[in-house]
């Protein structure tokens, strides 16, 4: 993909996320100032996000989703709609990791599915707590993941699940890792 095409796709991603933030804020009848106050995210940052000129991170989307009673995946794909063409969309930055949103499924539970890249670092990467349950399947590499007080070593093909509302970490062993992350949430109807 050319640099211009990639930039256009990333701009499309930012615009789409901004439209979805504005849509869900409108459903809750929450002003930009009130969303800023409740989420702890600066009003100027929210304004940039809604206009499509901001840089959404998974931490920011997680904070907004909690206030708006949805999941981060709701910002990226219409609920049970046709999947969007995500070629060239930017990966979301997390606490040292990157995540590419792949799909959302809503049934008895709501599932946000991401390709997650864990870089090799000198120390564990600690995640901000959030709701839901993380289900991680290691695709490539070896990493310690899970609750800070009891991480699990995952090899390719192995999986672990742990609550997202407890402090947790990711620590690649011997090189970067790729995993499939499925975030499980109660099904919410916005």
Give a structural overview.
This protein has four helices and eight strands. It has 190 residues and is α+β, with helices and mostly antiparallel strands. Helix 1 (3-27) crosses helix 3 (43-51). A hairpin with a 2-residue loop joins strand 2 (98-106) and strand 3 (109-118).
CATH architecture name of the largest domain: Sandwich
Question: What would you give as the CATH superfamily of the largest domain?
Answer: Jelly Rolls
Helix content class: 25-40%
Biggest beta sheet summary: 8 strands, antiparallel
Report strand %: 25-35%
Number of domains: 2
Measure the end-to-end span. Answer: 35 Å
Count the strands? 8
Named CATH topology of the largest domain: Jelly Rolls
Q: Compute the number of helices.
A: 4
Mean pLDDT: 85
Radius of gyration: 16 Å
Could you write a compact summary of the structure shown?
This protein is α+β, with helices and mostly antiparallel strands. It is built from four helices and eight strands, in the order ααααββββββββ. Helix 1 (about 5-25) packs across helix 3.
């Amino acid at each position: 993909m050319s640099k211009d095409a990639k930039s256009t796709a990333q701009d499309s991603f930012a615009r789409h996320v901004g439209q979805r933030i504005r849509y869900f804020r409108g459903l809750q009848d929450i002003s930009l100032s009130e969303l800023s106050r409740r989420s702890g995210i600066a009003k100027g940052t929210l304004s940039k996000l809604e206009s499509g000129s901001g840089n959404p991170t998974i931490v920011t989307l997680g904070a907004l989703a909690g206030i708006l009673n949805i999941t981060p995946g709701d910002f990226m794909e219409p609920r049970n709609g046709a999947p969007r063409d995500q070629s060239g969309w930017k990966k979301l930055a997390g606490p040292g990791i990157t995540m590419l949103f792949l799909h959302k499924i809503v049934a008895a539970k709501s599932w946000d599915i991401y390709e997650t890249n864990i870089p090799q670092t000198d120390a564990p990467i600690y995640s901000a707590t959030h709701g839901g349950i993380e289900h991680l399947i290691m695709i490539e590499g070896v990493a310690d993941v899970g609750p800070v007080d009891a991480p699990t070593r995952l090899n390719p093909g192995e999986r672990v699940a742990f609550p997202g509302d407890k402090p947790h970490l990711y620590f690649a062993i011997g090189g970067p890792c790729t995993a499939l992350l499925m975030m499980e949430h109660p099904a919410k109807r916005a």
